[in-house]
Amino acid sequence: MEKGISQAVVRRMPRYYRYLRDLLEQGVERVSSNELSKLMKVTASQIRQDLNNFGGFGQQGYGYNVRFLYEEIGKILGLDQTHNLIIIGAGNLGQAIANYGRFDSLGFVTVALFDVNPEIIGKEVRGIKIHALDELEVFCQNHKVDIAALTMPKQSADNTAQRLVELGIRAIWNFAHVDLDVDDESVVVENVHLSDSLMQLSYNIVKNKQ
Questions:
Q1: CATH for 7-76?
Q2: pLDDT (tens digit, 9 = 90+) per residue, 186-199?
């Protein structure tokens, strides 16, 4: 992706992708920045600025070709490629991620799960085998792995992340209750805290009652 583009812009791109997909499913062929603005609750100016970071894609007086823009944003997000995903921690959350078939349609293919619980090692989730965590190095050496999702206790997350870095994995999707900060700048870490969203929701519920 182009250098110098803010993470705020990057984080909005998946929203554009989702809304454009909805428009495609509705049979909409073109959309103006003003129309997209009303749908997304983002200013038309912001939309134009965001898309201009990647070349614009629109035509004055015509707007955006929905399918073309959808496909181009997919390329920007790397969704025209397949990304092999492993999940470390095959508990409820790990299995839920493995069971979510929508990820496959976006090109994120879960190829293995790993755990330390002997009662579930060897079992399968949606046809995907749960391996012993001790097999991690051998598996990664013999398979292409692009992303590792950590759905494990925070006490083990740092050590596991370091193992992944040493294995050459360059993207970590971290659901452990700790913010990972790896030393290697070439490794991208996305820290996801599901409870943070609930706490923000709780704040707004309390605020609205006042």
A1: 1.10.10.10
A2: 999 999 988 898 99
